[in-house]
Amino acid sequence: MYFVYMLLTEKNTIYTGIAKDVEKRFSKHLEGIKKGGAKYTNTNKPVKILYKKEFETKSDAMKEEYRIKKLKREDKLKLIENK
Hints:
- By secondary structure, the chain is an alpha+beta fold.
- 43% of the residues lie in helices and 29% in strands.
- Strands 2-1-3 form a three-stranded antiparallel sheet, sandwiched between helices.
- The chain starts with a strand and ends with a helix.
């Protein structure tokens, strides 16, 4: 199982990613890039998990991640509201 997730950052931006374990991945983001976090969240510290959705395959999760990353912020917020 894979999850697509969205995080809120201190700068009020939304980061989107995929992971097998969202809570563990969130911890890695908090620890910083040298501990396995992403470059983006190293300078835009995450504050909470806003959204997660489960997928059967990594491929399906990656397709959804790509789709979400192309959305405007307002559309991402609507997706989060309707989870």
